[in-house]
Design brief:
single chain; alpha/beta; Enolase-like, domain 1; TIM Barrel; 2 domains; seven-stranded parallel beta sheet; 14 strands; globular
Length: about 375
């Protein structure tokens, strides 16, 4: 049977989009003033559009907004132009063989993968969560992270956010251990003894420091600790996991299913965290879930502060994936940014998000916003 040529990818648009944070966002690895993301639009011969997004808070493993834009322009988009958008595994094979493996170009591949799923949903007239097997939940609890600010200021924000309906709060740490301990102590006092609380050092501690300071933080009844050690130090992560009683999450250490298997082998965490917009999109997320489930690891979901395209993709995936634990780490771009890039508004209120029940991811780019926040654009077309 011949696939319809209407689904042949004939053109692509790639944008660098920079939107200011409402307030500078600081973590142990640096501070972001702008969300510097890359947005992709693939268009088929039949006029069906698919959208994808690559997002990062600060440069990660050498990936920057500029490098992702370049890899899409020069490598990944040329690999999929002229191909049928529904032949996803074939397209992944082509992308993987550009640079011999899954660890190459993960952010750009995530954008392509999302766009392919969006096309599949739009062409079928179905939301992506139905293509993924149907919803297991129609609402999703959301947590909120507290950036690295003085402890008293963090506690004040925690009180306000808990009252706003968020289901868990995450203290960003990894800078100064004593200051981090004070922040956890003051936040716990502000929100009370039973409100779920997590700590995320964002790779900021050596293993010995992590064991010492997190051991003291355990007294404040933590829900979990996310990525205490550098992403590459799985032995360090394993030593922290063995020493502490609180569940440890591997976040930056996990970019694909191969990393998930290695975390399991090393016993480097109890939970792995998925980030759709920088770890290969939905296709790789499904593989991570499968490996994690076989290895007895839990699964959580973070975002890298996506704009509307990536956020909707996250909500569709979580809606159809029972393995993902709630709450997830993101509700709406307007939590963080001065504006968004889509015409629709992400359904989010009182700490609860909902997937948009419309074909694909259910979002369309806002031309005015794209023009205002565009800092670089290229249009590519098949011969």
């Amino acid at each position: 049977m011949t696939l319809s040529r209407d689904l042949e990818i004939v053109s692509a648009d790639v944008w660098m989009v920079s939107i200011p944070y409402r307030r500078a966002y600081g973590i142990s690895q640096g501070t972001a003033q702008f969300g510097k993301h890359v947005v992709l639009k693939l268009t088929t011969k039949g006029g069906i559009v698919g959208l994808g997004e690559a997002a990062l808070v600060i440069p990660e493993r050498g990936n920057t907004q500029e490098s992702i834009f370049s890899e899409l322009q020069h490598y990944l988009v040329p690999a999929v132009l002229g191909m049928n958008a529904l032949e996803r595994e074939s397209l992944w094979w082509r992308m993987d063989h550009i640079s011999l493996g899954r660890h190459a170009f993960p952010f750009g591949k995530a954008a392509v993968d999302q766009a392919l799923w969006d096309i599949a949903g739009r062409s079928a007239g179905l939301p992506v969560f139905r293509l993924l097997g149907g919803p297991v939940r129609d609402s999703i609890g959301v947590s909120r992270s507290l950036p690295t600010v003085p402890p008293a200021e963090m506690a004040e924000a925690a009180t306000r956010l808990a009252a706003d309906g968020y289901k868990m709060l995450t203290v960003k740490a990894g800078t100064e251990p004593e200051k981090d301990l004070a922040a956890v102590r003051e936040v716990r006092a502000a929100i009370g003894p039973s409100f779920p609380l997590e700590v995320d050092p964002n790779q900021g501690y050596r293993a010995d420091t992590a064991i010492s300071v997190l051991g003291k933080m355990e007294h404040y009844d933590l829900q979990s600790v996310e990525q205490p050690c550098p992403w590459w130090d799985l032995d360090g992560m394993a030593s922290v996991t063995a020493k502490l009683s609180v569940p440890i999450i591997a976040d930056e250490s996990v970019m694909n299913e191969v990393d998930t298997l290695e975390v399991a082998r090393r016993r480097a965490a109890h939970i792995v965290c998925i980030r759709l917009t920088c770890a290969g999109g939905i296709t790789i997320a499904e593989k991570i879930v499968a490996v994690a489930g076989a290895a007895g690891l839990g699964v959580s979901m973070a975002s890298r502060h996506t704009f509307g395209v990536g956020t909707s993709a996250i909500h569709h995936f979580v809606a159809a994936c029972p393995a993902v634990q709630e709450p997830i780490g993101y509700g709406s771009p307007l939590e963080r940014f001065a504006a968004d890039i889509i015409q629709q508004e992400i359904p989010f209120a009182n700490g609860v998000a909902r997937p948009i029940d419309a074909p694909g991811f259910g979002v369309d780019l806002d031309p005015a916003a794209m023009e205002r926040y565009n800092v670089g654009h290229v249009h590519l077309a098949s011969d």
